[in-house]
Request: fold
Amino acid sequence: MAEKHEIRVRIALVGPPGSGKTAALECLHRTTPADRRGPLIQIAGSTGKTLLYDHAEFSFGKVGEMPLFVDIYALPGSPAAVLARRSVLSGCGPTAPS
Reply:
């Protein structure tokens, strides 16, 4: 099997409820051409608030010969959501907030 070469960037929008994280992700998803974005995945409760995370993948062309993908997550900032943040941010390096 051929080795996969790509550049993948992970961006996390973290903050208190009502600060616009999901709205920003929805706007970016809506205004990006369909051939440059994946589906918008939203895991929300019955009240519409994000339970675990919202996520969308975007393609921003190439860097050299390698495709550039950006994964953007909207994550709840509450202390109760620490496990969701750790799961999404695992492998991001020492600057990732817990």
Remarks:
- Residues 86 and 94 are 12 Å apart (CA to CA).
- The chain has two helices and four strands.
- The longest strand covers residues 50-63.
- The two ends are 36 Å apart (CA to CA).
